[in-house]
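In this section we turn from sequence analysis to structure. A common task in structural bioinformatics is to predict how a protein folds when a small molecule is present, because the ligand can shape the pocket around it. The inputs are simple: the amino acid sequence and a SMILES string for the ligand, here flavin-adenine dinucleotide. Study the lines below before reading on.
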Amino acid sequence: MYAAEFNYLRASSLAEAHRLLAANPGAKLLAGGHSLIPLLKLRLAAPPAVIDIGRIAELRGIARRGDDLRIGALTTHAEIAASAEVRKSAAALAEAAAGVGDPAVRNRGTIGGNVAHADPASDLPTVLVALEGAVVAAGPKGERTIPAAEFFTGVMTTALRDHEIVAAVLVPMATRGVGSAYTKFAHPASRYAVVGAAALVAVNKGTCAEVRVAVGGLVPHARRASAVERALSGQPAEAASFAAAAARVRDDLGSDVLGDIFASAEYRAAMAPVYVKRALAAAAARAGLA
Ligand SMILES: Cc1cc2nc3c(=O)[nH]c(=O)nc-3n(C[C@H](O)[C@H](O)[C@H](O)COP(=O)(O)OP(=O)(O)OC[C@H]3O[C@@H](n4cnc5c(N)ncnc54)[C@H](O)[C@@H]3O)c2cc1C
């Protein structure tokens, strides 16, 4: 199908993007186009104008900012997966980015578009929630930082306000003795997460001193799995503890587990402990290596 007609506009700076948003009510931003273009072609969206932000230099790049990595909104999944800095300091994020879609999607799709689109089956939101990352939203009057746990609010809905643009994502850098990992049951066609699990584990003298877990893919938006976290904190970093804690994820899922023709809600809920356990084990192993 062809998209409905729209005006194509291109911004060369954030300031220009804000001017164009103000002058074109109902316009949509275009970054990598890997979620927006399918929506336009299916006519699920028909904005009067599309504002291409894909060449705004200030939205690119990965840099250290204090204890965080600041990843520009236009950084592609492939760039994140290949970044030595991300692999070292936020292994789960590099892992999630490496598993997004296929090479074409990873070379065009951006972290800013991924979080703004907030598809429940996306991988990066789950990691950002587990790592206690944040989203930097740039409005016409300046920036604000929104914790990832507050940014994702529902199916394809976020805390972004009208005319705010995702400028960057902040990810705390892992310190010594802390490891993180992301595992997913990928849809065999799209690779989107049917069930996704991200974990961060700090290991001290063989004990799980700090545990953070988030699940995605099977719930309306990525969420922390606090029952799992409580069950593993203070326990030995070993397979039996990971399995026992992961089994608690059912307490974190609630009654809003998503199902579709590929995988029912019951099936996804049954798979969740498996992927949580794998993420915990991989994160703890990395903590030992850190
Ligand atoms: C075949 C296929 C397989 C995929 N598989 C996966 C997968 O396995 N895992 C996964 O996580 N994702 C997957 N995706 C989605 C992919 O990751 C996209 O990169 C992502 O969803 C959107 O990023 P984008 O840069 O393409 O955004 P676009 O498509 O350009 O935009 C998406 C939405 O975000 C808005 N937007 C974009 N940038 C900004 C910004 N900076 N500030 C505010 N709003 C913005 C747009 O207006 C639009 O509403 C897949 C996509 C396809 C087509």
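The mean pLDDT is 96. As an exercise, try to locate the residues that line the flavin-adenine dinucleotide site and compare them with your own expectations.
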